[in-house]
Amino acid sequence: MAYPPISGRSLSRFIRARGLVIGSYIAWLRHVRGVRMGREVDLSLSTRMEVGRRGAISIGDETAIALNAAIFTRGEDGNVRPVSIGARCFIGAGAVILPGVTIGNGAIVAVGSVVRRDVPDDCIVSGNPARIVRRGIDAGWLGRLPEAHINQRLMYAREAIKLGLATRGPAALEATPEAND
């Protein structure tokens, strides 16, 4: 059975609804659970936060937390140890942040990593347990690296070719949304 093609227009109607749901979830975390969040925090609805007490989790400005990430503040002994995530960070899908961890500004936690120790500013950590794999990065808004826009343009170009909106070569890059701004 062939499925109809999915265009960008058909999904765009859900953006407003997604914004309302995410906004409600963030308000609930702030006011009911006591999570401290900066401005422009983007998190998935599937993010799990085990908050031992009000104020035990702090998330900085312009930080993104991807789907199925988990943040714990209560240790095995039952004591609550606060977790702090800096500004302009990205926490990858399925990452686990354990109690008492501080993640520095501009840090990126890779997909599926388990963070047991503090993470310094401006680095990428990966693995179980998480280890530093790159230092001195310049993470921007929502923890994006400066070269991330190149990958996004290539992704849009591939989609334009699939949909027949462009052919291979420079015309495909001209079909990207950024080129039409």
TrEMBL record:
GO molecular function: O-acyltransferase activity
InterPro entries, sorted: Hexapep, Hexapep_transf_CS, Hexapeptide_acetyltransf, Trimer_LpxA-like_sf
Any one annotated GO CC term: cytosol
Keywords: Acyltransferase, Repeat, Transferase
The keyword Repeat appears for this protein: yes
Presence of the UniProt keyword Ribonucleoprotein in the record: no
Family matches, as Pfam families: Hexapep
Gene3D superfamilies reported for this sequence: Hexapeptide repeat proteins
Family: Belongs to the transferase hexapeptide repeat family.
The protein's name: Hexapeptide repeat-containing transferase
Source organism of this protein record: Novosphingobium subterraneum
